[in-house]
Amino acid sequence: IIAVMSNNNCSSSLVVAQRAVKQLRVEASVRRIQVSQAAAELRNFCLQNASKDPLLVGIPSSENPFRPPKSCSLF
């Protein structure tokens, strides 16, 4: 029984190690760029889309779903 249990642990460890190696190979094959290039591309994207950013230009009150509710008055 002990020999069977230790054999299962070895095969289980082997499977875990094989999965780790497979994942490391996938991660190693990912195309990478320099941080300076990524920062420049991010900056350009932000500048190009600044006119569409509601945090920068605001939202017209007629389209704002979070505008304060209008008060109702009954006569």
TrEMBL record:
Residues annotated as domain G protein gamma: 10-75
Record carries keyword DNA-binding: no
Membrane topology note: Lipid-anchor
Principal subcellular localization: membrane
Gene Ontology MF annotations: G-protein beta-subunit binding
Keywords: Cell membrane, Lipoprotein, Membrane, Methylation, Prenylation, Transducer
Pfam families documented for this protein: G-gamma
Localization in the cell: Cell membrane
SMART domains in alphabetical order: G_gamma, GGL
Entry GO terms, CC: heterotrimeric G-protein complex
Gene Ontology annotations of biological process type: G protein-coupled receptor signaling pathway
Family: Belongs to the G protein gamma family.
The protein's role, per its UniProt record: Guanine nucleotide-binding proteins (G proteins) are involved as a modulator or transducer in various transmembrane signaling systems. The beta and gamma chains are required for the GTPase activity, for replacement of GDP by GTP, and for G protein-effector interaction.
Subunit structure: G proteins are composed of 3 units; alpha, beta and gamma.
Protein name per the record: Guanine nucleotide-binding protein subunit gamma
